[in-house]
Specification:
The complex is a heterotrimer. By secondary structure, chain A is of the alpha/beta class. Chain A is built from eleven helices and ten strands. In chain A, α5 packs across α7. Chain A starts with a strand and ends in a 15-residue tail after the last helix. Chain B is an all-alpha fold. Chain B contains twelve helices and no strands. In chain B, α7 packs across α8, α8 runs antiparallel to α10 and α10 packs parallel to α11. Chain C is mainly alpha-helical. In chain C, α1 packs antiparallel against α12 and α11 runs antiparallel to α12. The chains are: A alpha/beta, B mainly alpha, C mainly alpha. Chains in contact: A-C, B-C. Chains B and C meet through α6, α7, α10, α11 and α12 of B and α1, α7, α10, α11 and α12 of C.
Chain lengths: 267, 267, 325
């Protein structure tokens, strides 16, 4: 049980000196999922961007992020590029927007693979198709030759997951990947994610505002509010006995059917 | 108020300059040191001095006085022209936004023609056939600019139309001219205002440019473009003749540009 | 789901639609030109009589009018006129007597060289700088360049040309300022035009770059660690292709306007100067002929770039018009 990712005293400030993320610390272990919960504007997305070193230029970051022993602050640009996609995968809220609209899906997979590994186009396509079937997409050839706007939202979501996992990263950052989906698709995607990470022993940083989903997916939960992690701990502790007032508020708003069992009451 | 000025030093300076310019233009007859039309062959082609801060031209006329009187020729007409453009834009644009599909398409094709064509082309055609004279020049400039505003206002009204309170008023039958004038138009005025200010700068350049080419204001008018034309002919002997009028055009256009840019950054 | 066959069908339909629009807009413009021509003060028949020193008697005037078809209805006159024009018969210059068409073609060479070189140079300079600044938004270099563009947009082309003329033609006379006979004659004119246009282009390209890098799919592509040699050309620039194409198309008219000024200042004997001078000589056939030519050129150019849009971005549905996207 090694610590894959460690975030220590992360501070993100804007030009006026306001602290958007304040002194946040958490860690991610192999094979475990950490759910970062908070309302919009709480700083959770910024945190994930910081891990990828993709903060907007006008923000300043301080603190330490250690990925598999490497201090990210000291990394060269080249190293960063291989980490992104190779060791850390990311999926986002709107799949169509995460996929380039004018490039066929297949080409985007190939570009991705060949950016990191010295493989032939044919080999890359083979791997891509394999990944697509793993995310339960049928007719992979058709998907490969389509554009993002020609596929449905749910399909695009799966494509995005396939792309994020193509290079078998150790960590998956999932920033509200299901918030824009209908309930049924949401459930499908969540189940899919759970299976995939169980299969590959991958760690996941799951960002959401939804306590129920966290209950299902996470091992550890951190609650973020106005840039600070106000409470964090194991899933069971947080959900059954929240200490902080705010966390208690959140839990109270959960469905009353939730009894601390960790199951999402979907049909 | 003071804090606004402190953080916006340049735009404030620009605004002050414009205000000073307008006042000077209005009070030209009182402020100007000499008669701008008074020729004096003993004093011709003098470089800038205390007596003649901008020098004199080939007819011995004081350039500073001419520049001062030129304000009402080069700057004030721009305000009038753009006001007309704005009016046309509001009337036609709003009307067009409520038209049916086919008529709207016709209007859009019409505006398409005018936005695709160079304003110079339209001006040449208008002045070429209808003759010289400032009315024709103004007409040509209005012709070049109306389409842009009709398109934009139509687009903005379209967006405002979708606002919930507008839909509600239409459903309830309370919709009418009042709603349009009291609510929709004030809603879009800030954006239109910013565009107009930015365009003042362009139209100043255009109008003076036309005078420079010989279309529009004619000598001995102290219009800045006309003065530049004289300046070009005496470039070798009296470069200040060409420098100062051009500099005034530049300074004035730049001030409006700075103010407009600052306003645009607000949104 | 649009299959490849459906896609080409859509494209063909859109092409035809656009082609129709092209013809319609050109016809509308020709109507506009014709109307203005008819509104020109002065009755042509009386004017001709006065010019040859005769008295414009009512009966003679009426005769001439009938001869020229001026007694027919507006529509009939327009159709007769259009009939000539669309066959390429643009009349003869009032001042030189030569056919307008040949006079225009003679002068197109220098003007197109002027505009083309300026255009190419502008793109060459502005696109790299604009992209660089856009990618480094907020950096020192970016802020300096941005402030310069605000000023740069306010500089009158004619003033800049005069300053350049003075600096490099008078103070330090290295370059010719009149005429267009040698390549050296092109240096100052092209420089002036390029400088002014580049400012605008840099501003726009920078703004597109900023806008487009923020697109989530670009950020997502970056988050996947794509190689720069793939990322910049295929992903970022590909999405910017359309706005840059639009920029080129919408700025073409300003190059024309600039050429009029430049050709006048530098006594550059080109098409634009020819057109301008026609106003002073009240040379109607020349005005009409060159106006129609320029309009036709621009409309056709726009049509062709519209076609390129579809090739670049298959999402674009061309039956929507440009203002709807």
């Amino acid at each position: 049980m090694t610590t894959l990712l460690e975030v220590k005293n992360l501070n993100i400030r804007n030009k006026e000196g306001q602290s958007l993320v304040h002194d946040s610390s958490f860690s991610l272990e192999t094979g475990k999922t950490y759910a970062l919960i908070g309302e919009s504007g709480s700083g959770k997305t910024l945190t994930s961007k910081a891990i990828l070193d993709m903060l907007p230029a006008h923000l300043q970051m301080s603190g330490d992020i250690v990925l598999q022993g490497e201090h990210l602050k000291q990394l060269s640009r080249k190293r960063w590029r291989s980490i992104r996609g190779g060791q850390v995968g990311a999926i986002f809220q709107h799949p169509e927007q995460a996929l380039h609209p004018s490039i066929p899906i297949g080409r985007q997979f190939v570009d991705l693979m060949r950016s990191h590994l010295p493989v032939s186009r044919y080999e890359a396509e083979k791997q891509a198709k394999k990944m697509l079937s793993q995310v339960l997409l049928k007719d992979t050839s058709h998907v490969m030759s389509s554009y993002a706007h020609e596929l449905s939202g749910g399909m695009n979501q799966r494509v995005m997951i396939a792309m994020a996992l193509l290079l078998k990263p150790k960590i998956l950052i999932a920033d509200e990947p299901t918030s824009a989906l209908d309930v049924k698709t949401q459930a499908e995607i969540i189940f899919l994610l759970k299976e995939l990470i169980l299969d590959t022993d991958m760690s996941m940083l799951f960002i959401t505002h939804d306590l129920l989903i966290s209950g299902y997916l996470a091992d550890t939960i951190g609650v973020m509010r106005e840039g600070k992690i106000i409470e964090q701990g194991s899933k069971e502790n947080i959900l059954s006995a929240p200490e902080h007032e705010y966390t208690q508020e959140l839990c109270r708003h959960c469905s009353q059917r939730f009894l601390g069992k960790g199951e999402i009451p979907y049909a | 108020m003071i804090s606004i000025i402190r953080t916006n030093k340049l735009p404030t300076a620009a605004l002050l300059y414009i205000i000073l310019l307008i006042i000077t233009g209005l009070a030209a007859s009182w402020i100007s040191p000499y008669d701008p039309f008074h020729t004096n062959h003993q004093q011709k082609l003098l470089p800038p001095s205390v007596a003649h801060p901008f020098g004199t031209d080939y007819l011995g006329r004081d350039l500073l006085s001419r520049v001062i009187h030129g304000i009402s020729e080069s700057v004030f007409p721009v305000f009038i022209v753009l006001s007309v453009v704005m009016l046309i834009g509001l009337l036609v644009g709003t009307w067009s936004a409520f038209l049916g599909n086919k008529l709207d398409m016709l209007m859009m094709s019409l505006t398409d023609i005018f936005t695709a064509l160079p304003s110079m082309l339209l001006t040449i055609v208008v002045v070429g056939f209808l003759g010289f004279g400032m009315e024709n020049v103004y007409f040509a400039v209005i012709l070049s600019w109306w389409a842009k505003y009709v398109r934009i206002i139509r687009g903005l009204i379209h967006d405002v139309k979708k606002e919930p309170y507008i839909t509600a008023s239409r459903v309830s039958g309370a919709f009418g001219l009042r709603i349009i004038t009291r609510h929709m138009i004030p809603n879009i005025m800030p954006q239109i205002g910013t565009m107009l200010i930015l365009d003042v700068s362009k139209v100043i350049l255009t109008l003076s440019g036309l005078s420079f080419l010989g279309i529009g204001a004619q000598p001995p008018s102290p219009e800045w473009g006309v003065m530049l034309l004289d300046g070009k002919n005496y470039l070798q002997v009296a470069p200040w003749m060409g420098f100062f009028p051009g500099f005034m055009i530049f300074l004035t256009a730049a001030s409006f540009q700075i103010i407009g840019e600052r306003l645009r950054r607000e949104r | 789901m649009a299959l490849p066959e459906e896609r080409s069908e859509v494209m063909l339909r859109s092409m035809i639609h656009r082609l129709i629009m092209l013809v319609v807009t050109f016809v509308l413009f020709s109507l506009f030109v014709f109307t203005l021509m008819r509104l020109a003060p002065g009755d042509p028949a009386s004017m001709l009589l006065l010019e040859i020193g005769a008295v414009p008697e009512q009966s003679i005037v009426a005769d001439l009018q009938k001869q020229w078809g001026l007694d027919q209805s507006f529509i009939q006159q327009y159709l007769a006129w259009a009939h000539h024009v669309f066959q390429g018969e643009l009349g003869h210059s009032f001042s030189s007597g030569e056919p307008v068409l040949s006079e225009m073609i003679e002068r197109l060479g220098s003007t197109s060289k002027l505009i083309a070189s300026s255009f190419v140079l502008t793109l060459f300079i502005s696109i790299p700088i604009g992209i660089r600044m856009g990618l480094n938004e907020g950096s020192m270099a970016d802020r300096v360049v941005y402030s310069m563009t605000i000023l740069g947009l306010s500089i009158p082309l004619y003033w800049l040309a005069i300053l350049l003329m003075y600096a490099l033609g008078v103070i330090w006379p290295v370059l010719p300022v009149v005429g267009s006979s040698t390549t050296r004659h092109y240096i100052l004119p092209v420089t002036a035009m390029t400088l002014v246009q580049s400012v605008y282009f840099i501003r726009m390209v920078r703004s597109y770059t900023i806008q487009y890098s923020k697109f989530s799919y670009i950020e997502a592509a970056k988050a996947r660690g794509l190689r720069p040699s793939i990322f910049y050309p295929s992903y970022l620039l590909r999405s910017m292709f359309i706005p840059i194409l639009t920029l080129i198309t919408t700025s073409l008219p300003s190059f024309f306007g600039a050429s009029i000024i430049i050709e006048t200042i530098f006594s550059f004997p080109g098409f634009s100067k020819y057109m301008l001078e026609a106003i002073f000589r009240r040379d109607f056939p020349v005005i009409q002929g060159s106006a129609l030519f320029v309009a036709a050129f621009i409309f056709v150019f726009n049509f062709m770039t519209d076609l390129l849009y579809f090739l670049a971005d298959p999402r674009v549905h061309l039956d929507k018009q440009r203002w709807e996207v």
